[in-house]
Amino acid sequence: MAIPVATVDVRQLNTQNWGPIRAMFPAFVEEMELARYLRRALAGGRCRAVRLEPHRDASGVPSTHIYDVCYVSEADQA
After folding, report:
1. How confident is the model at residue 48, as a pLDDT?
2. Position 1 in a domain
3. What is the pLDDT of residue 18?
4. Number of domains in the chain
5. What are phi and psi of 13, to 5 degrees?
6. 3-state DSSP call for residue 8?
7. Contact in structure between 53 and 68 (CB atoms under 8 Å)
8. pLDDT on residue 46
9. In a domain, 19, yes or no
10. Could you list the residue range(s) of the whole structural domain that residue 19 is in?
């Protein structure tokens, strides 16, 4: 299991003023915000790929909007 390098709450990402669109289409906005976050993370050049895993709370239940971001090494991609 890879060690997470970041934990991201997609509901808190806000790179653009979505206005009422966020309230009407929350899943769409969260997907777009997460894509922008990942694009910036990959542009940093530290890795070529990342893996998202649902963050688990203390009881082990996976979240629907909080993700652990793990860098994927070259060995993991093979």
Report:
1. 81
2. no
3. 92
4. 1
5. -70, 135
6. strand
7. yes
8. 74
9. yes
10. 6-77
Q: Is the pLDDT of residue 78 over 60?
A: no
Residue whose tokens read 């309230």:
23
Which strands make up the sheet holding 6-9, listed edge to edge? 6-9, 62-72, 49-56
**Mean pLDDT over each residue of the chain, to the nearest integer:** 88
At 6, is the secondary structure helix, strand, or coil?
A: strand
50: tokens are 């990342």
The amino acid sitting at 5 is V
In a domain, 13, yes or no: yes
> For the residues of 28-76, what is the DSSP string, one character each?
HHHHHHHHHHHHHHHHTSS-SEEEEEEEE-TT-PEEEEEEEEEEEPHHH
Specify if 33 maps to a domain: yes
pTM over 0.90: no
